[in-house]
Design goal:
By secondary structure, the protein is an all-alpha fold. It has 9 helices and no strands.
């Protein structure tokens, strides 16, 4: 079975082919609803054959997940885009605002991958964000405990809010959403601190890992 998400290839030709397919899919999605895009349209845009497509992906859903995998990496980095002291609740990281702007620009694509329960992209986002949060908590707070629970709360909160936002269950601009999400994440860490789990704080004294 072809990998659902590309994490790089040792073969430059494979990497180039997958990149062309990802670009073709996103271009097609920008012009028509995702459920109206077929394999034939994507391979035509990418300039490859149908057989080549199936050498790399099981279906369009797997390709779409791969095409959006960069967003997962961006999300993980956006929530950790600070050095020693995280921004206060009134100043979310600019990277977080940029991330939400990018997602809104391709909302139809993300709606197709972020289902009511998170969907495949939500599962990937939750897993990667939780892993990064655990690593950061252990690195910054080696004497603490309960890191797994805090990391799960961070990953669940972010993934759930993002999913509802792309499905228009909540109405907010990218800028406003970034501010709200950032304050909620600070509150999660503050709650962890109340149980003696944290030693790193933001400008308002709220911890973040």
């Amino acid at each position: 079975m072809a990998p659902a998400v590309t994490d790089g290839s040792r073969d430059p030709r494979t990497a180039r082919t997958r990149a062309r397919l990802r670009t073709a899919l996103l271009a097609a999605y920008e012009e028509q609803p995702p459920d109206q895009v077929g394999v034939a349209e994507v391979v035509r845009r990418a300039g490859v054959g149908r057989a080549t497509f199936y050498l790399h992906y099981d279906d369009l859903h797997a390709l779409a997940l791969d095409a959006c995998a960069g967003t997962v990496r961006d999300a993980v980095e956006a929530l950790h885009a600070w050095d020693r002291t995280p921004p206060g609740p009134g100043a979310p990281p600019p990277e977080l605002v940029a991330l939400f702007r990018e997602i809104r620009a391709r909302a139809a694509v993300y709606r197709s991958l972020l289902g009511p329960g998170g969907g495949p992209l939500g599962e990937l986002l939750h897993r990667e964000l939780r892993a990064r949060s655990v690593d950061e908590l252990r690195r910054r707070r080696p004497a603490g405990s309960g890191h797994d629970l805090t990391a799960s709360a961070v990953a669940g909160l972010f993934t759930g809010v993002l999913t509802d936002w792309v499905h228009e269950r909540t109405d907010a601009s990218p800028e406003r959403l970034a501010g709200r999400v950032w304050r909620m994440l600070l509150a999660v860490h503050a709650a962890a601190a109340s149980h003696g789990q944290s030693t790193v704080t933001g400008e308002d004294g709220a911890p973040l890992g």
